[in-house]
Amino acid sequence: MIGAALIVAGVIALLGTAGVVEAGEIVSKWWPLLIVALGVAQYVADPDAWIGALIVTVVGLILLGTRLGTFSGSVWNWVWPVGLIGIGLSIFVVRFRPETRQGEKARITASAILSARQLESSSAAFEGGDLTAAFGSLKVNLTNATLVPGARITATVLLGGVDVIVPKGWKVKLSGTPILGSWDNTTRQDTVPNDAPELEVRALVILGGVEVRHVERWS
């Protein structure tokens, strides 16, 4: 997707240089399509993380509408109702989504929208989860959990932050797309054996941050 975006940007720049189109005007109007595409791509990659993907896609559409003049007034007048809808959806998903329970939840589905939350799992068969932070922060402590093969967490961050705290001895595979944001794995990996349990974390970060760490950073 990033490669396609660079190709499109290059083509627009060439056409602008040739005088065929007004490149600056096109970019200023249509750049929110990149955010929309990220939301759609996140849903295609992991349909279970649909709340975060939906929020990102809707925010991108709102930004596009304001650039095209479809929506009048401040963009924040349109964005904050999306936050309310996201809160409502997250409540329904957490309340009614079936969970496999072994002492604690095998999967964590959580969101922090205009709030800060701290969660902990001590599941003996932790499978992963879907984490969404929009204008808020979310901290998940997994130091007492045990991984199952293929465990994966999907983190979606929009103007917020997500911390995933893991015990020493886990492999951590962190990948994602940061847009004016960052993601970082500060866990100790050099002493982890090859047969250690592995947690995969996929992050989509827009104006925020995701960190996977131990309880004590840099230890």
Reconstruct the topology from this structure.
Layout: H1 2-17, H2 23-30, H3 32-45, H4 50-68, H5 76-96, E1 101-102, E2 104-105, E3 107-113, E4 116-120, E5 126-134, E6 137-141, E7 147-158, E8 161-165, E9 171-179, E10 182-185, E11 198-206, E12 209-213
Parallel strand pairs: 3-5, 4-6, 5-7, 6-8, 7-11, 8-12, 9-11, 10-12
Antiparallel strand pairs: 1-2
Structure description:
By secondary structure, this protein is an alpha/beta fold. It has one domain. Helix content is about 35%, strand content about 35%. Helix 3 runs antiparallel to helix 4 and helix 4 runs antiparallel to helix 5 (about 75-95). The longest helix is centred in the middle third of the chain and has 21 residues, at about 75-95. The model is unreliable at about 95-105 (pLDDT under 50).
- Rg, Cα atoms, Å: 19 Å
Number of helices: 5
What ranges have pLDDT less than 50 throughout 5 or more consecutive residues?
Answer: 96-103
Counting structural domains, the number is 1
Short description:
The chain is of the alpha/beta class and 219 residues long. The chain has five helices and twelve strands.
Using brief descriptors, characterize the structure shown.
single chain, 219 residues, five-stranded parallel sheet
